[in-house]
Amino acid sequence: MFVTFEGPEGAGKSTAIRSLATALEQAGYSVLVTREPGAGSFGKKIRALLLEQGDVVPEAELLLFLADRANHVETIIRPALASGTIILCDRHADSSVAYQGYARGVDIDFLKRGNSFATKGLKPHLTLLFDLDPVVGLQRIGDGRDNNRLDHEPLEFHRKVRAGFLDLASQEPERWVILDATKAPDALCADALAEIQRRLSR
What we know:
Blueprint: E1 2-6, H1 13-26, E2 31-35, H2 40-51, H3 58-82, E3 86-90, H4 93-103, H5 108-119, E4 126-131, H6 134-141, H7 155-171, E5 176-180, H8 185-200
Parallel strand pairs: 1-3, 1-4, 2-3, 4-5
């Protein structure tokens, strides 16, 4: 089962993923926690390029994300799926559509075709959207932004990202589940776990 976690900055995805992995492993499942960008040695190099300060045109930014995604899917995600592992992925293809498409203005149809090319058509079985007002999310991360270029974009950029995620979720309600990321971490994790267990029981 391939589960992706999407949402604006500071929504609590990474914290929830760690707790979910522990809960699923205790229930007897094999679990892989991964992320985009930054999985594997190749991904780590691309992540360093993407998140460092400096001017990068949207087209170059997108192509780096797609290169990371293609390698990630082929060398990490597909082998894990074939072995029956549950994959918990912090960001995936939908982030490119929200950030580079809705927020940066890159053609969304082109983005979706690029994602399909990079993943060879692979799509998540479940996408959990940790929805949060970006004002709150940016306050949460505060000084812990770690020189991440995307964190330092203006508020209007992050509002467009959130709107993009919500629009994508409305287009594929069978795949997406919207979670209230204003909840306490334990409650948010419980909601996410319930959705994963519901899919596993099908």
